[in-house]
């Protein structure tokens, strides 16, 4: 059975991001519950400064979770997994090499990005398509896997240079 390491790694990254978000959200709910319980235990007899301090403590603990950064990580992981999966699907289902490259190009890059970097993008896209096709349909050797990874890394580097978060 062929192992698609690039997809497996992207999925593992996504799973980790999801688990971190879930952990942080559970902590957030726990902080909220603790705050409500402590505020309730004061039964309205606390001075406003004590309630303000309790609220400040809760907000500091919530900020330390960095939930927005975790949501961003999860979004990027989801996008990366979707792009890698789409590329594998295209290579597996479309037989024409030129069409395969064109479809992957359309998924990964926007028109304005292509105008500025067409030669480098197409060179890396062809290398990725060729190596992925060889790995997927011919021989899932370590050599082909290494070339798939190298060419995907080059495409990701171009996307990052263009300001894309992936």
Number of helices: 6
Radius of gyration over C-alpha positions, nearest whole angstrom:
23 Å
Number of strands: 0
Largest sheet: none
| Beta-strand fraction estimate | under 5%
Protein model, in words:
With 166 residues, this protein is an all-alpha fold. The protein folds into 2 domains: 1-81; 94-160. The protein contains 6 helices and no strands. The longest helix is centred in the first third of the chain and has 37 residues, at 5-41. It starts with a helix and ends in a 5-residue tail after the last helix.
Provide a concise account of the structure shown.
With 166 residues, the chain is an all-alpha fold. The protein is built from 6 helices and no strands. The chain is elongated and about 75 Å long.
């Amino acid at each position: 059975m062929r192992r698609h390491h690039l997809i497996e790694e992207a999925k593992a990254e996504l799973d980790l991001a999801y688990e971190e978000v879930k952990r942080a959200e559970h902590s957030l709910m726990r902080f909220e519950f603790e705050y409500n319980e402590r505020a309730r235990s004061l039964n309205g007899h606390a001075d406003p400064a004590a309630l303000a301090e309790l609220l400040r403590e809760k907000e500091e603990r919530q900020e330390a979770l960095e939930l927005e950064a975790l949501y961003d990580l999860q979004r990027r992981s989801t996008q990366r997994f979707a792009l890698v999966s789409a590329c594998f699907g295209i290579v597996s289902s479309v037989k024409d090499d030129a069409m395969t490259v064109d479809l992957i190009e359309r998924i990964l890059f926007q028109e304005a990005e292509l105008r500025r970097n067409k030669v480098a993008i197409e060179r890396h896209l062809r290398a990725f398509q060729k190596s992925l096709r060889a790995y997927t349909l011919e021989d899932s050797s370590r050599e082909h896997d290494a070339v798939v990874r190298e060419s995907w890394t080059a495409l990701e580097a171009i996307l990052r240079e263009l300001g894309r978060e992936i």
